[in-house]
Amino acid sequence: MNFDTLKHLVFLDIETVRGKASFNELSERMQQLWQKKALQLNNEVNAEELYYDKAGIYAEFGKIVCISIGVFYLKGEQLALRVKAITNDDEKALLETFKSLVTDKFDERKLKYVAHNGKEFDFPYICRRMLINGVQIPSSLQLSGKKPWEIQHIDTMELWKFGDFKSFTSLDLLSAAFDIPTPKDDIDGSQVSSVYYEEDNLVRIGHYCNKDVATTARVYLKMNGLDDLQEDFISYVS
After folding, report:
1. Rounded CA gap, 102 and 123, in Å?
2. DSSP state letter for 166
3. Integer-rounded Cα radius of gyration of the chain
4. Cβ atoms 160, 101 nearer than 8 A
5. Strand order of the sheet with strand 112-115?
6. Domains of the chain, CATH where assigned
7. 3-state secondary structure of 119
8. Span 115-137, pLDDT tens digits
């Protein structure tokens, strides 16, 4: 795999939180709909408690507060990675910024998105939240009307399954298997809502999201039989 192929990859990760700080802030209609959802998820746990813990993973009840992207470039003759976090309390503005970046900076006909569990989570979540916010979905993210081989999504977890659909492997475990440093050196996904609503710390969330992107890129290289990146060749752009 040469650089002409690698340069069209966009590594991606999102961080999501519950849409409102508390269940009581939801409209009456959304409260009723969440209560129905909660019964499906776990009828032994209070709906309000479950909202606090789980709402962020559902696009109808959550929102995106960070999208991090990473792209390869050449530093001299050495492959390097540049990672940037887009954060915003205003989700529509965040999604518009992401859309503009994708459409203005990349050739959408050639780019491919890479994420861990992206086909089950990141890619559809972004598209659903774009529709809810009235933001046009970039053609490179669209699935409608495309043949399977035209879809520009690569999922490192799907690649690792090798057709074994029963298997779920976390990014942390996969990075450990490849002897790549853990991205989970500060917070994990279950803590993002608390960091957002209780600490008001988008910078911390962006840092965490960036580390996941860098790890996904390093895992992708190893899965394709390529040399790992050294930390000196990973840059984080504000």
Report:
1. 14
2. T
3. 18
4. no
5. 153-155, 112-115, 9-18, 62-75, 78-87, 234-237
6. 3-19+61-237 (3.30.420.10)
7. coil
8. 999 999 999 999 999 999 999 99
